[in-house]
Design brief:
Layout (H helix, E strand, L loop, with lengths): L2 E7 L20 H5 L8 H6 L19 E5 L8 H8 L17 H11 L3 E6 L2 H15 L2 E5 L4 E7 L5 H14 L8 E8 L6 E2 L4 E4 L7 H7 L3 E5 L2 H4 L7 E3 L4 H12 L5 E7 L1 H7 L4 H19 L6 E6 L19 E6 L6 E6 L4 H10 L11 H4 L2
Parallel strand pairs: 1-11, 1-12, 2-14, 3-4, 5-6, 9-10, 9-11
Antiparallel strand pairs: 2-13, 4-5, 6-7, 6-8, 12-13
Helix pairs in contact: 4-6, 9-11, 10-11
C-alpha cells in the first residue's frame, strides 16, 4: 500500500466490553442506541460489513460484504481519547491515568494559581456546558478560571473569549501541562473557550487539547522515521503532542475534517493520513443526543461513499473508534467502555470477517506491515487477511 487513511469516528463504540461493569458501563452500546433513531441512514458502512461484526444485531447483515470487518477490544486500562488513540497507534497503557472524582487537590491548584495569577472556580467533575452555565457569570466578573474534570483523566479550563482570549488560554494550558506530571500526569489539559452572555453561554470551536506525550514511539514516529508522510487531521496533533507528524490541520467540525481528508487525498503523498472526527463524542455523545449522533453518522456515511470512489489502487481506508460514548446511556454522560468497530475498505481489500481482536494495537501493526515500516507493538497485523 502507498497510502493508508486511518479514520477515527471518535466514541463510536459497538457494544460493552466484558469488563465494562468495572467502569460503570454495563450494557452500553453506542451503535445500538443510534440505530433507534430514524435519522440513522448508513448504507455504505452497512454494506462494508458493519452489521456483520461480532455482536452487532441492530443493523442488516449484508449477504456479500464489500469490505473486511471486525471489532477491537481495548487492552489499555481506560476509556479516554488519549489512551484509546495511543493504543490504536501501537502503545498499550496497562495502568490508568489519574482521575479526580472529588476535584483537584490544593497541591495541584495552588501552583497553578500562582503561575497564572488567576483564581479558580468549580473544581468538580461536571459537563462543560453545565460548568459554564453555573460559573460563567462569576468568571466574567472576576476573571477566575473555570477548572473542572470528568470521569476521564482531564484538566479542563473554560474561559470566555472576551475575558481570556484563546491564545492566552492556550498559554495557561501550557503552564498546566508543564505542571501536571508524575502522579498528577493527566492525559489531557483541555482549553474550553466560550462566548455569549449570561444564560446564553456557548462553547466555541477554538478548543485545544494538550496531551501527555506518549511514553514510547508510536506508529506515527515509525512512519515518519522511515521517511514517509504522516498527516494529521483534527485532534491528532494535540493527542500525540505534535510527535510523529509531517503535516497537520485542525477541524472546525466533522464536515470540515472530512473536507480536509479529501484535500489530503488529492495530494500525491506516501504514508499515513490519521483522522479524528470529534463531533460524534463532543457534540452528541456526551450530550446524550441520539438523533444528533445518528445524523452525524449518516453525514459521514454519505461523504464516505464519495471518498471511496476517489481512492487509488494502492490506497486503504481503515475506520475505527477510540472508545464509546453511548448517547442512550443514562447512568452517566461520560465515555463508555466498549468494543470499537474495524472496517477496511479499498480497491485492494479482500472482504471477510476479521473477528474479535484483542487490542486496538492490531491497527498499528497492520499499518506498519502495509507501509513496510519497522515497528514493534503488542498488536498483531491483519494485513494478510485483507489483501487480495
Amino acid at each position: 500500500m502507498k497510502r493508508v487513511f486511518l479514520i477515527v469516528l471518535d466514541s463510536f463504540g459497538v457494544g460493552a466490553l466484558p469488563d465494562s461493569a468495572a467502569f460503570g458501563d454495563a450494557g452500553s452500546n453506542t451503535l445500538a442506541s443510534c440505530a433507534t433513531s430514524p435519522l440513522l441512514q448508513i448504507p455504505t458502512m452497512t454494506a462494508a460489513g458493519l452489521g456483520a461484526i461480532d455482536g452487532v444485531t441492530c443493523l442488516p447483515r449484508p449477504a456479500r460484504p464489500l469490505g473486511a470487518y471486525g471489532r477491537l477490544q481495548e487492552a489499555s486500562m481506560g476509556k479516554d481519547t488519549t489512551i484509546g488513540h495511543w493504543e490504536i497507534a501501537g502503545v498499550v497503557s496497562p495502568e490508568p491515568m489519574p482521575t479526580y472524582p472529588h476535584g483537584f487537590p490544593e497541591e495541584v491548584l495552588a501552583p497553578f494559581r500562582a503561575a497564572t495569577g488567576r483564581g479558580t472556580l468549580c473544581n468538580i467533575p461536571i459537563s462543560g456546558t453545565e460548568a459554564i452555565a453555573r460559573y460563567g457569570d462569576e468568571h466574567v466578573r472576576t476573571g477566575d478560571l473555570i477548572v473542572y474534570t470528568s470521569a476521564d483523566s482531564v484538566f479542563q479550563i473554560a474561559a470566555h473569549e472576551a475575558v481570556v482570549p484563546p491564545e492566552e488560554l492556550y498559554r495557561i494550558c501550557r503552564i498546566a501541562r508543564g505542571q501536571l506530571t508524575g502522579k498528577h500526569g493527566v492525559g489531557r489539559v483541555i482549553a474550553r473557550p466560550f462566548v455569549g452572555t449570561s444564560g446564553h453561554y456557548t462553547r466555541t470551536a477554538n478548543r485545544h487539547d494538550f496531551s501527555l506525550e506518549p511514553p514510547r514511539d508510536t506508529i506515527l514516529d515509525a512512519v515518519k522515521a522511515a521517511g514517509l508522510d504522516v498527516l494529521g487531521v483534527g485532534k491528532i496533533h494535540d493527542i500525540f503532542a505534535g510527535r510523529g507528524l509531517t503535516d497537520y490541520v485542525y477541524n472546525q467540525s466533522n464536515l470540515d475534517g472530512m473536507a480536509h481528508t479529501s484535500d489530503y487525498a488529492a495530494r500525491d503523498f506516501h504514508g499515513l493520513c490519521f483522522v479524528n472526527l470529534v463531533d460524534f463524542d463532543m457534540v452528541y455523545g456526551h450530550r446524550r443526543n441520539i438523533d444528533g449522533y445518528a445524523a452525524a453518522l449518516s453525514e459521514f456515511d454519505r461523504w464516505l461513499a464519495g471518498f471511496l470512489d476517489t481512492l487509488h489502487a494502492d490506497d486503504l481506508v481503515l475506520i475505527t473508534a477510540d472508545h464509546g460514548c453511548d448517547p442512550g446511556y443514562t447512568k452517566t454522560t461520560d465515555h463508555t467502555r466498549e468494543y470499537v468497530p474495524l472496517l477496511a475498505l479499498g480497491p485492494g481489500v479482500k472482504p471477510g470477517n476479521l473477528g474479535t481482536r484483542s487490542t486496538f494495537a492490531d491497527i498499528a501493526a497492520t499499518v506498519a506491515e502495509l507501509l513496510g515500516v519497522d515497528f514493534h507493538t503488542p498488536g498483531r497485523s491483519f494485513a494478510s487477511a485483507i489483501l487480495r
